[in-house]
Amino acid sequence: MTDRQIVSESVIEPGTGKAIELLKGQILRIEQVEGGQCADFNCFNLHDYKEFMHCGRTRTVHGFHPTTGTFMWSAPPRERAMLYILEDTVGRNDVLFPRCSAYVYEASYGFAVHTNCHDIQAEAQREYGLTPDDVHDSFNLFMCTGVDDDGHAFMTRQTTKAGDYVDLLALMDVLAVPNVCGADVMKTSNFALKPLKLTVFAATEADLAQVPKTPTLASQRTPKDFRNPTIKTDRPLRRDPAYTPEFPNTPIVVTELAVSLSPEELALFNAVKRGDIYGEDDAAALRDLLFSWWEERFLQAHAGAPAIESK
Amino acid sequence: MTETVVKLRLNQQQLELLDRTIAQGIAPDRVALVRLALHEYAAAHNTEGKTESAQ
After folding, report:
1. Does residue B30 sit at the A interface (CB-CB below 8 Å)?
2. CA-to-CA distance for B42 and A273, rounded, in angstroms?
3. If you average pLDDT over residues A81-97, what whole number do you get?
4. Ranges of each domain in chain A
5. Parent domain of B38
6. Which residue from B minimizes the CA distance to A254?
7. A 230-259 residues with CB below 8 A of B?
8. What is the ipTM of this complex?
């Protein structure tokens, strides 16, 4: 780390954020100045802003608290690793909560105007021609959150100290947009707004060697693969009279596969089948068993998440 | 003893997954794969370790 060359240094003050061109192989360090400050974060492909960081995919792959050794993924159909968390001295970040917004502060607290992450992000992104509608779900650094027994997300105070940091390594050229979270009447940043330091480094060979290889698959599609690659530039929605649907793998055709079960096999089946779900429908219960077995034996990721280790 | 026939209803995508699994040498055909799944799944999940007719 000591070999890293510093590209730039800056401080973002409370109520502000900054859009930074972070090139592939550069590291953005977001660092506590006083401690106890949440940073919200957006990220776009620098050469195609329609590819942006997707908290939903990220939390499915890495859980609710991405930290050292995890990736920030872009939204489908791109689904590429945009950033890699190279180092995190705290280990408590969040992809559960959305950005705070003016509406939250007006509806819940009665503020006509209040610092909020949506509007701060929008103002920072405006430097690059983006609009308030382009702000996306935020990666919330240093934000201490969880899920309660009722299934609600909660936030609590953080324990970060001055000098704590998260290092984000760019795996593609991105526009990285951190902001000082505007929440001073919530526990998010311990009821006070503090500055954050931003440092951009050039990654060393040792830094780059830490990044696991991720797959490159045909399903990771870019505009060259789209049936409609043109970005719509007006606001009203109108039906395309020339549209004809081309949904893949349609029509879905069901085929019967007859399986003869011996009395012993039937007994095995009856012992484990999900009669609570399928009732008398043994065909559905056996299908469930078949694919449940397949998941257990062959699936290399959490159900619903892609495998991210490249072979 | 009579056998019981269960008619699985599978779509083309599900069959593709089965066929790719068979191509790995896991089982010789679709029916054999279903049987293998039944035996392995039951071995892992039948916590009583016995069944009525197996006794």
Report:
1. yes
2. 9
3. 97
4. 5-220, 263-295
5. 12-44
6. B11
7. 249, 252-259
8. 0.89
The answer to whether residues A230 and A35 touch, using CB atoms and an 8 Å cutoff, is no
- A282 interaction partners in chain B (CB closer than 8 Å): 6
Tokens, residue A33:
């100045």
Phi and psi, residue A53, nearest 5°: -65, 140
Strands (E), chain A: 5-12, 20-22, 26-32, 39-45, 48-52, 71-73, 81-88, 139-141, 144-147, 153-156, 165-170, 174-180, 196-202, 254-261
- Stretch A97-111: mean pLDDT: 95
The domain total for chain B is 1
The tokens of B47 are what? 């916590």
Half-sphere exposure of B48 (CA within 13 A, CB side): 10
Contact A30, A168 (CB under 8 A): yes
Residue A209 at interface with chain B, using a CB cutoff of 8 Å: no
Whether the upstream peptide bond of residue A251 has omega within 30° of 0, thus cis, is yes
Q: For residue A256, what are the β-bridge partners?
A: B9
Nearest to residue B26, comparing CAs of A298, A284, A261, A285? A298
Whether B27 is covered by a domain: the verdict is yes
Q: Name chain B contacts of A296, Cβ cutoff 8 Å.
A: 41, 44
A270 — pLDDT class (breaks 50, 70, 90): very high
A75 and A142 Cβ atoms separated by less than 8 Å: no
State the Cα–Cα distance between residues A25 and A18, nearest whole angstrom.
20
Answer yes or no: is B54 within a domain.
no
Q: What is the pLDDT of residue B47?
A: 76
What tokens were used for A195?
A: 């500055």
**DSSP designation for A78:** T
Q: What is the pLDDT averaged over residues A180-207?
A: 97
CB-based contact (8 Å) between B23 and chain A? no
State the pTM of this model. Answer: 0.90
